[in-house]
Amino acid sequence: MYKSILVGAALIAHASLVCAQTYPARPVRIIVPFSPGGASDTAARIVGGKLAERWRQQIVVENRPGAGGTIGTELAAKAQPDGYSLLMGSSTELAVNPHLYPKLAYDTIRDFAPVALIASTPLMVVVHPSLAAKTVKDFVALAKARPGELNYASSGNGATTHLAAEMFKRAAGLEIVHVPYNGSAPAIVGVMGAQSQMSVQAVPAVLAQVRAGKLRALAVTSAKRVTAAPELMTLVEAGYPGVEIVIWNALVAPAGVPKDITAKLSANILEVLKQPEVGEAFAKQGAEMTPGGPAQLGAYLKAELGKFARVVKESGARVD
Prior knowledge:
Blueprint: H1 2-22, E1 28-32, H2 39-55, E2 59-63, H3 70-77, E3 85-90, H4 91-100, H5 108-111, E4 112-127, H6 136-145, E5 151-154, H7 160-172, E6 177-180, H8 184-192, E7 198-202, H9 203-211, E8 216-220, E9 246-254, H10 259-273, H11 276-284, E10 288-292, H12 294-315
Parallel strand pairs: 1-2, 1-3, 5-6, 5-7
Antiparallel strand pairs: 3-9, 4-7, 4-8, 4-9, 4-10
């Protein structure tokens, strides 16, 4: 009996090893729960393209947008846990949505296996150039001198741009009014047209307007200064250590994927992220490389879920 158990265990271990060695034996799909052209889609295509070259196997990027990323994420959660369906996740659907939507068909920790942390996109605090504020200190002083008179534009209730501005607002003790727009583009236009005085938007979305003088940048929301605008201080440097927020991307798989496949996926992705051209491709999108393996990503997911639970509650954000 004991011998049979040992033989069985050996056979299972051998089968797992063979599976990992032959993986992938057919095309792999990376589900992106947003439309083409966004940060998640770009990350999937950059990483997927390099994996395809390495594996000599087709990588299919499948865009499944809708409901704030929940539709595509649910699809990935329910996929076969064989390594052939992956999710290019982001902070939105994996860390924020669990606290915005009262009923989700997936649980970030229960339903997904962490594979690799890939990159993050910092946000930038911007104001209309006519505003008498050239620094964060100036803006805080102005807002406190005119409580309730200034407003800030976001991409919509519960969006990262909304939550980031709320974190800053609460940390600085400001009374400024939230004006939700239907997306980043109209929110940015609202600030450029002076309908709103301030906004916190992803660096790639506003950098060109800042360089053209149509917006004035005050700071970034990452822990460190960003490569695209090294002259800008962080909100941490400005005196608000708790205000750190970025839009990140990470690859996850349905829970139950064999650990050998997860290990191979993670190792191959981390090797891909070391390639100079990959770093350059992300830099062009205004993203910072933040590579990490399964253990690091797992801990990061739990930390981000905890952080956004507090931020969403404090902001009173609700899904439109």
